[in-house]
Specification:
By secondary structure, the chain is α/β, with parallel strands linked by helices. 40% of the residues lie in helices and 17% in strands. The chain has two domains: 192 residues, Glycogen Phosphorylase B (Rossmann fold); 181 residues, Glycogen Phosphorylase B (Rossmann fold, 3-Layer(aba) Sandwich), CATH 3.40.50.2000. The strands form three sheets. The chain has a seven-stranded parallel sheet with strand order 3-2-1-6-7-8-9, with helices on both faces. It has a six-stranded parallel sheet with strand order 12-11-10-13-14-15, with helices on both faces. A two-stranded antiparallel ribbon has the order 4-5.
């Protein structure tokens, strides 16, 4: 079949949504389907086959994000029609997402939406309108999703959230998948040692790692505060933060204020998956305090690399982190340091958690995600074509 995917974020941007789109489109093509991408233009973007870009501007409050501009809809509809698209799949409920809904209704094509991001948790980037936007976003999400024939939720958590918003169309839980092989790769002692040396991390440190966007919604300040408490007992602990984002400057200053700067490393962005996998394998455990995850892609990468996980208790990690089996799920963010200490002081426990993480990761794969998505496409295509209103 011919599949049109619409997204407000795509290469050269690097984030979880882009990763999932790339994995899905690659697997769909391997299965013999044709995939066309409709996304925003980007100043660093290179021409790519089957990628259609609309004009965009830098988002005023977030320099790493861009927002699409009004476009020539007739030209877009002709492009989609000429490609004989069978189904439309959108991944973001912003400008390009609304363009996708318009194309779906205009061309009477079945549309499906994957709800990757808890949009309500991002309105703090427009602080003077946050209270109003929180209310608006719930209604906007409900209306947006109800225009589609079906919604894909990456986790039970997101399905419950959308039902609470009043989404009435069928919601199918299809867990995101990861290409496990790059994270299962074994690295030599020399490679691991060289990586730590490059980042100036002392070789005798017990290393906790977080990978992701350095934004307010990730609660990285809580990780720093927990590190401060942990270091009162374990002077050999170290925290590696992989990624970038709007709070990086603030977090660097906070590490200084907490007097733990010598025990925290900001690596910036690392190439995915090679360097990111190396970072996981150089570490002893993964930590995350976020409560806004829709699925927890980085957690899946971490367990595929064999890392125990210490996380704030969240339904998005269901099946990936089992409390007491391959990590700890903490009911309070301020208690994360206690779990970190317990893991450091019990070597056998750390080893058992590591082995279990590898086993649990096998339940998730990018191939399985693609198979389930195609099955949903086929069910939607089997129904008579009509407007999505």
């Amino acid at each position: 079949m011919n599949i049109a995917m619409f997204s407000d974020t795509y290469l050269p941007q690097v984030n979880g949504v882009v990763t999932m789109i790339r994995l899905l489109e690659e697997n769909l093509r391997k299965m013999g389907h044709r995939v066309f991408i409709y996304t925003i233009n980007h100043p660093k973007a290179s021409p790519m086959e089957n990628v259609y870009r609309i004009p965009s501007l830098k988002f005023p409050w977030e320099k790493d994000q861009r927002i699409g501009l009004p476009i020539d809809y007739k030209k877009l509809l002709k492009n989609v029609s000429d490609k004989k698209v069978d189904i439309i799949h959108t991944h973001t409920p912003v400008i390009v997402g609304y363009v996708a809904g318009f194309a779906s209704r205009s061309l009477k094509l079945p549309g499906v939406n994957t709800y990757h991001t808890m949009m309500e948790e991002y309105v703090h980037y427009i602080p003077f309108m946050e209270p109003l936007l929180r209310v608006y976003m719930k209604g906007a999400t409900r209306r947006f999703c109800n225009h589609y024939k079906a919604v894909i939720a990456p986790s039970q958590k997101i399905m419950k959230l959308l039902l609470g918003y009043g989404v009435k169309v069928p919601i199918e839980v299809i867990p995101n998948g990861v290409r496990l092989e790059p994270f299962q790769k074994e690295f030599s002692i020399e490679e691991l040692s060289e990586f730590k040396k490059r980042l100036q991390i002392p070789s005798d440190r017990k290393l906790f790692i977080f990978v992701g966007r350095l934004g307010e919604e990730k609660s990285i300040d809580k990780l720093l505060e927990n590190m401060q408490r942990l270091l009162q007992t374990r002077k050999d602990a170290h925290l590696l933060l992989v990624g970038g984002g709007p709070l990086e400057g603030y977090l660097r200053k906070l590490a200084v204020q907490l007097k733990i700067r010598d025990h925290v490393t900001f690596s910036g962005y690392l190439s995915w998956p090679e360097e990111v996998s190396l970072a996981y394998h150089s570490s002893d455990a993964f930590v995350i305090a976020s409560h806004t995850e829709t699925f927890g892609l980085v957690v899946l990468e971490a367990i595929a690399a064999g890392l125990p996980v210490i996380a704030y208790k969240d339904d998005s990690f269901y099946g990936m982190v089992v409390d007491g089996e391959n990590g700890f799920l903490c009911a309070e963010k301020d208690k994360i340091c206690e779990a970190m200490l317990q893991l450091l002081e019990q070597e056998k426990l750390l080893k058992r958690f590591s082995e279990n993480s590898r086993k649990f990761s096998l339940q998730f794969s990018d191939e399985e995600n693609a198979r389930k998505t195609v099955a949903l496409y086929e069910r939607l295509l089997a129904k008579p074509r009509q407007d999505n209103d």
